[in-house]
Amino acid sequence: MDKFAKFNLTPRPAECVAAPLVAECFANLECKVVDTCLVNKYNLFILEVVEAWIDPALKNPKTTTTTGLADSRWMAR
Known about the structure:
Elements: H1 3-6, E1 11-12, E2 21-22, E3 27-35, H2 39-42, E4 46-54, E5 66-68, E6 74-76
């Protein structure tokens, strides 16, 4: 399934990683996996940000804050 097409998003090439950036996002983080020791137990990858991007054309971007809850759910505000 092409998730970009399904959600009407535009892929943009990244500079440091193979995964594409999302053109419609105010910020994009290019990351590499640096540790997988917690994957089997917690489904958690440890990442290192290798490049960060923002769109300076967006003066008042809509942002969302996510919080990890104790029972492994995620909440967006």
